Amino acid sequence: MKRTLALLAIVLVAFLPGMEGVSNGIGNVDNGCNCHGGGSASEQVTVFISGLPDVYNSTETYQLTVTITGGPDESGSNSGGFNLHANGGTFVSLDNHTRLISEPNKGVEITHTSEGNDVREWNVEWIAPLDDTDEITFRAYGNAVDGDGVNSVGDLWNSHKVTVEGLNSDGGPILDFTNLAWWLIIITILGSVAVVVLLMVRNPAVDKKTVMHWLTTTNHKDIGMLYLWTTILFTLIGLALSLLIRIQLIVPENDFMTGGLFNEAVTMHGAVMVLFAVSPMSFAFANYIVPIQIGAKDMAFPRLNAMSYWLILFGGLVAASGFFFGGAADAGWTFYSPLTSIEYSPGAGISLAGAGLVLLILSVTFSTINFLVTILQMRTPGMPLMKMPMFTWNILFTVILMLAVFPALLSAVLMLVGDRVFGTMFFDPSIDGTTWWLHIFWFFGHPEVYIVLLPGLGMSMEIIPNLVRRPLYGRKTIIFSLVVASIISVLVWAHHMFITGINPTFRKFETIGTELVSVPFGLIYLSLLATFYRSKPNWKQLPLVFVAGAIGIFLVGGITGVYLSSVAMDVNLRGSYYLVAHFHYTLGAVAVMTLGGIYYWYPKMFGRMMDEKLGFYHFWITFIGINLTWIPLFGLTDMPRRIYFYQESAGWELAHLIASIGGFVVFAGQLLFFYNFWRSMKHGEVAGANPWNGSTLEWAVSSPPPVHNFDDAFVYPLTQESE
Amino acid sequence: MKNMRSFTVIFLSSAMLMLTFGSIIKWFQEPGTGAHAKVYDELFFVYWSLGCAVAIAVYGFFLWLVTTEVDEEPIDAPYLGQIPIERGNVKLSWSLTAIITAFLLVLSSVTFSSIDFFETPELEEDSFTVQVTGWQYYWEYQYPNGINYTSAAGEPLRIPVDTPVVFEVIGGDVFHSFALPEHRIKVDALPSRPNIGWILAEETGNYPIRCYELCGADHAAMIGELEVMEKEDFDQWYRGGDGQ
Known about the structure:
- The complex is a heterodimer.
- Chain A is of the alpha+beta class.
- Chain A has helices spanning 2-15, 180-202, 204-208, 211-216, 220-248, 259-293, 302-320, 349-377, 390-422, 433-468, 475-489, 504-516, 518-530, 542-565, 567-573, 577-606, 612-634, 653-683; strands at residues 45-50, 55-56, 61-70, 80-86, 90-93, 98-100, 109-112, 121-127, 136-144, 156-166.
- In chain A, α5 (220-248) packs antiparallel against α18 (653-683) and α9 runs parallel beside α11.
- In chain A, 56% of the residues are buried.
- Chain B has helices spanning 7-22, 26-29, 35-67, 90-119, 231-240, and strands spanning 128-135, 138-142, 148-150, 157-160, 164-171, 176-180, 185-189, 195-200, 205-211, 223-229.
């Protein structure tokens, strides 16, 4: 019964965004007529659009009149205002009482001028679009103003909505089937599902297990496997979206995508990659490897672990489902208010993303508890905290950071969804909700990049010492550096808001704080390098090659990060492609480290090695592709991010052409990788229990490991002779 | 030739090194214009040279490390199920910490003198304030004498050359960011809270104005123009707009 209630509550959260939002009146209207009287629409006022046909003919001109009746008495001056919006065709202003707004979409929106502020009736012309297959929706907002010219007390407003059909309209399609880019998104989502299903059924473990087993499993290794399939799915979706962005920007003034769809692609690429792909993919390994590394038989709370997995799966699906329901979230993955308000983003996308994030945060919170208890309480006797394997250390810091900052995101998302669904107005601009959002979001957002980074670093710290045959240099230094980095990371969020008008002294503090981040990470980086001193690296081993490549990539990301930490440099670099290139270098490095991790632990999970030759091709294609994509974009310090077209005169086309080619090179490399992944599950060389000569405990059990990892006779540490 | 085995990684590191240099070459082809750009471009050069020096040092260190590789299994090589061995030097860690911190504090001091310049307008007698409001998807300009127009009408924001002009920037509907990339000036336009920026243009001409914060479907089209005029031309236009 309790379980059913919990399930119902989650379903309810997921469906909240479907409820109708509260409108806050006229937006986007000039001359101070924004939402007179505040609050909700008034029934005393009637706004009416007359002159519209039931069915319009292509390119025909119609005379429309917007009238306001009722409300406070007409005083002759400052008595009314209106805003008329249509999602197609063209408006024509007939006199100086009206003017078109919203460049460059001339004609989709029209409003009154200051001359037209003194009347309550306006005449405009509307020219129907050439394509008469679409439904056109007109929406007029009208203010009845009392004319005192002082404030909006006593003023009232209302709105009117009319939908007309085109001559050849078939009742209005729910989905936009004519848009190639949208179709590509749908096809790639379905294609990604197909790829993942192919990989899943190929899995040797699947033969023996039924579908019911995978739906109900609580074994940490099976759940780790499920995480892996799920994050591969989200990675493919994220990569496909990035390719659409690259196609759109490949030439100046491309019309492959509309601005709205481009924003959806940009937003979902960021949200899916950061929150549902890269970070949870390292948790696939955290689930699979950490309990074995510390000598435990399972996670502390296996059923909670299963719950975490199913929440993250449905969280991601709900967030991405916007593409099927009229448009995904489109305000950037940072969701800056007030663009996320119901007024400026009326579709379901942002609410769906919010619901998906709530599920993600629940998942993350359960995982955090689970990993904290597992790592702190379930280590095998003989393994003190300071002697834990480095991957486990990094996961420990990751979950501590998660516990510290995800509640901030939860509160932010709940307030946002509250604003959109219940009209709570937490982020109302009049109380500076924008700054409020920035603070809460970045208090989460900055540590989030460390949450993404630390597991990748942990993988490097496992791979390098084992494959270069020397112990990790400066183990204690690294652990204390991680402590320091975690503490600094929650103190420097305001460097994302350097030029929003926060206190100058505070900005200087944040500049120094941000620069200090490079002290612990510099030490970690140099320690990783120093491990190579008088070592015996085997450059034929793929995980080492990937990690070495990632180290090279990460240095570029780190150094450009120091430029950005300067408040003065940030004045120009903020919001430019330089910044985008910087964080793709850091996150790209994490992705390459994670690939190294997959090559490293693949034999443990599937009992076979991945093909070496294909792996080397994969490495070089990925490495060259990443640099080809992002090095040219460092040059675009003057190009704003998230713009869907640029003029030829800007001189950015060569950089974008190279970058787009690079994007496709990266994607091709990953297809090769998935082919290798698929092929090696049956044809790979059989791996023993310890193919890499590893030192941590996951290599002490068979590949794949038995259900309960260790038998009762297991004692840590093993002696060198027992090997 | 034991180092031949390191060929892969050497090639990899040198490639990265060159790419790091190449990353910002465009900068030296197109210097900015105006008082801010002078300060900014100098600052960028400081960061760029130090960044390159660090990159060379680190990649060089890595390359040297790989050449130290040995043929036989190292004596402390990890073995299965061992208790991890501690290696390293605490004094070295602390000295590295001190070096990196000192390096960063030097950078900070350079940064701070620049940001102080950016945020304290050096006003003169004929300075004035233009109120800039960001709307979806155009800019509205309001001069002290009442001239008021928008970039949607295709008109540029007009300012006189060699005169400090203050911008009071606010978002009319959503979060925008008012930027003059060639003057290296950017001011966030938040709804309901004005931010201050200033400009001292030193060359006449037309320059783009762009929005640097995603503000909706047509964010890309939110482009204005800045026209830096000779003082006399500006005065003539300004008085003409006064309604005389």
